[in-house]
């Protein structure tokens, strides 16, 4: 799992992206979102093994 202080988490193009979307399958950071505080949202990235595991759970 990537640390919340990774350089990717701080990349904000003129906005405060304090929310993180983390893949529940591979635990990689998928994207950041603008929020009024630190928020972590779990979803799936849709790549490789993660895509297959979501199809099996359906």
From TrEMBL:
Taxonomy, superkingdom: Bacteria
Protein name: GapA-binding peptide SR1P
Species annotation: Paenibacillus lactis
